[in-house]
Amino acid sequence: MPNDTSTLQDAVERFVADEVLPAVAAWDLADDLPDAALRRLVGLGLTGALVPAEHGGPGLGVADLVPAWRALSQGWISLTGAINPTGLATALLVRHGTDAQRARWLPRIAAGKVLASLSITEPQAGCDLGRIETSARPLAGGGLELEGRKRWVAGGASSDVVFLLAMVEGADKPSCVVLPAEGRGSDTWIVGDLDKIGYRGVESATYRFERHRAPGAEVLGDDAGAGARQMLDALDVGRVNVACRGLGIVDRALACAVQESAEREIGDGVLGDHTHAQIRVGELVVRRRAVEALVEKAARAVDARSEDARELSTAAKVLASDTAVWAVDRAARLAASRSYTASAELARLRRDAPQTQIGEGANDALLLALGRPAIADA
Fold this sequence. Notes:
Structural class: alpha+beta
CATH topology of the largest domain: Butyryl-CoA Dehydrogenase, subunit A, domain 3
Helix content: 40-55%
CATH class of the largest domain: Mainly Alpha
Largest sheet: 8 strands, mixed
Number of helices: 11
Number of domains: 3
CATH superfamily of the largest domain: Butyryl-CoA Dehydrogenase, subunit A, domain 3
CATH architecture of the largest domain: Up-down Bundle
Strand content: 5-15%
Distance between the termini: 49 Å
Order of helices and strands: HHHHHHEEEEEEEEHEEHHHH
């Protein structure tokens, strides 16, 4: 892995320019993130970047990774999304794992030998963690027997380990279960796939457990009932990642708007000679700066684990994602019909941007979480 953040950002930018942008339209059409591209992400060290030095990693912080995540998202947010679950798993292990769990998983994550996935959502439970129904029963001699269903498991068909929320027998609240991939795809651990209109290329798996016996499964931190707290803590990292996806989309929407304004001929000049185009581009510049500042502040707060880290990471994710949708719309108005052909970059961004409003918590649910305490404290 590059040994400093500026070198890492440069490497990611070269990867995006040389390998992603020339191929992303074809990848998106085929709903395929090629193995070679995923290996490049691992080779750049992006999957193991958050692993502390004592476990073999570079020990980077979230703020260190914001420029790389943003640059990657300028190419395709699916790339940024593909590395996110392993980052979340790293945060879970570092913050809440036992010494044995850290020793088992973190060095292999740092070496790029293990990729993780995260599983919270169920058919009847999204942001409402109190509705989790997947159950886990301890087995004699160790391990767990799982029963239930999961949805939207990013990377869930090929990851090496899954961190999932389940009701463990004997606890009255959900637990975070560390589930090795052995047995996935069997008659007791059935894997399906969800088709998507955007955010293509990322595995979005479904699971059905039918009395699946997993001898290697264990509760994170050996702390049954603490899963919701642990997961929400790690999601601060994930929300900054999603905010970087939104920011990358804003970057590309602005680039498309500037190109359209500078190159599209109108009368004796170009579109950018007209004040309405100048104002529209100016709005994009201003809002991008606002998102950029909040994302950077949130990342620093997450690294410091400050009291306002959750509020800031949530606010950054909501603002970045809403701005991404808005920015694509504004750029598309300048491009008009040229933004609506299937191969146009703005057409892909139009489909990808709403994913950022959903990933790591739907925006309306997050706004409720911010608004209720503010009113209660009045």
